[in-house]
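Structure tokens please, single chain.
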Amino acid sequence: MTIGTFDGVHRGHQRLIGSMIESAQRHHRASIVLSFYPHPRSVIAPGAAAPPYITTPEERAAILEQMGLDWLLIMPFTLELARTPAEVFISQLYTELRMRELWVGPDFALGRARRGDVPFLRALGERMGYSLHVVEPVLEGESVISSTRIRLLLQEGRVAEAATLLGRTYTIWGPVIAGDQRGRTLGFRTANLRLDPNRAIPALGVYAVWVCLGKGPLPEGALYPAVANVGVHPSFGASEEPLLEVHLMDYEGDLYGETLGVGFVERLRPEMTFPNADALVAQIKQDVERTRQLLTPEAPRPQCQTW
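Here you go.
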């Protein structure tokens, strides 16, 4: 078993969870990830803004299943749980789930006052009968890969760097909703996706993206190069909430009701204000051309699977 929020299931998480899965298979045991929802910070400090999610619970489950995990347990995080002494909580895992190995990172701690740190858990395991395994974090450059670091990169629009830390293209899934039809008048039809306000959204701007079209594992040919805009439309009266619009460059058809996955490859530019529609169209043409140059067959691609 390993315990944590594991938002993003980034490369550091993958090393820890992958090591735990490998050990479970070697010893003919079940591998379990115990995760929490909502994010513990939103419960412990309700007045503070909760960190936006990099992955939804459904996305997390699908990624872990692909890694070969046997069981994902998502426990509601409450104040009562936060106040539970570490020894009581671990004892429940040992007796009720028959936990025999606990895998954690070096800075792991749980329980009331975060007393259940690595030395505490190791000593408890010697008394109780489980073994503790500590996996070192993964570095990218000179810094540890973390969900916080990835959120900051997304906030700055550095989606290519975020993808390096995640080990995959950052992808947002959502249903296509009705827009204001402005793209048609400009000659660039767009699909509008509703953005989850609790989700980590890349910085406002224009991006080269791949779009996964369809539901479930997709047939070949269902991945399209596209230009995406995350913005508030400053040239046409700013909206209150950011919108995600995508122009599929090689697709003709009605997308209403479809579920799209937008995989962010590279930020092309920040959102800009244009003096008129002609200036905007000229810039969009440049964005499309730049996107075709970036999205070569060798460019990173998202996994086209809905969650």
